[in-house]
Amino acid sequence: MIIDIHSHFFPKTWPDLAERFGTPNWPWMRHTEPGKAVVMIGDREFRPVTSACWDPQQRLEDMDRDGIDLQVISATPVLFAYERPIEQALTCARLFNDSALELCAQSNGRMRALAQVPLQDIDLSCQEVSRAMASGHLGVQIGNHVGERNLDDEGLLTFLHHCANEGAAVLVHPWDLMGMNRMRKYMLPWLVSMPAETQLSILSLILSGSFERLPRSLRLCFAHGGGSFAYLLGRVDNAWKHRDIVREDCPNPPSSYVDRFYVDSAVFDEGALRLLVDVMGSDKVVLGTDYPFPLGEQQMGALVRGTDRLNAVEKKRILGSNAIKFLGLEKEFPAA
User: Which portions of this protein are annotated as coiled-coil regions (predicted)?
Assistant: First the structure.
């Protein structure tokens, strides 16, 4: 089994949210020609996309081309609506969660979904995770923060506890990126802020002592190879050893917590992938492609398959068996 745990979708169409809620700047899809569209935020162009986002046949053809057996789809974070009134965010979550399952239903079992939730309200987020799991989702994708609240926020920890109780896998994806005013060109927010946001998420859990409180049954994964975490972990350990303000709430060296979460393989460089496996362990890296976007892996799985810096056992784990554990699919694929 070759399993891609990190890919995104957009429905081909969805209701006019600006009209429904009477407020501006909602995402919508402007189709430009067959197979191509632009995701709009109000009257602003956000991202050009292709039919791979909404056409299951195109996605399956690409999976066959690249030897992907199962792909897990998640909404693109621009759809999260964390900044909106809670009733509107809940409506969006249900709308896009149901759309994801409709897309997966056309895949002959080769596509599965992670839900989204209105994370600004913990009670309703827990309810939506429970509904989504009962409907067939494998877990949930969340943004790495909600406003000024990082993942060590008490409410977000309550939500993560609930996900563990529900058996829901949790994929953490960076969004609402820091420093946007200083990075107006060259896609710098995606190249600089995304890795930094992800490292901030991981360190907020480690240094706050949150992993001491979260159950080990929680299955948690951070996108994009964990951002800058693996490369800078030595710096963090050094700070923990020499500064009491760093270890104030963290009883053990930061590097001792790498067994508490997964990261995906979307690092696009053989040396970076080798470092990631060395830091995390080969049992904590899963295949993630960020399909079907330009910053994703254009030939899905090629980095892991093609490198000579990983041995056969490491490749097998990263390409499939680790994902089966992360997603809780051991009963479906007992021999994989």
Answer: none
Q: How far apart are CA 203 and CA 141, in angstroms?
A: 19
163: nearest Cα among 172, 175, 174: 172
Q: What is the count of structural domains for the chain?
A: 1
Taking the mean position of all CA atoms in its chain, how far away is CA 18?
26
Residues 175-228: pLDDT tens digits? Answer: 888 888 898 899 898 899 889 999 999 999 999 999 999 999 999 999 999 999
- The answer to whether residue 219 is domain-embedded is yes
Residue 153's domain comprises: 79-327
CA 150 to chain centre: 16
CATH classification of the domain holding 309 = 3.20.20.140
Q: Give mean pLDDT, residues 51-71.
A: 97
Residue 118 falls inside a structural domain: yes
Count of alpha carbons within 13 Å of 37, Cβ hemisphere only? Answer: 19
Mean pLDDT of 290-309: 95
**Residue 23 falls inside a structural domain:** no
- The answer as to whether 86 is a domain residue is yes
Closest C-alpha among 17, 6, 1, 4 to residue 224? 6
> How confident is the model at residue 336, as a pLDDT?
64
Determine whether 217 is exposed, middle or buried from the number of CB atoms within 10 Å of its CB (0-12, 13-18, 19+): exposed
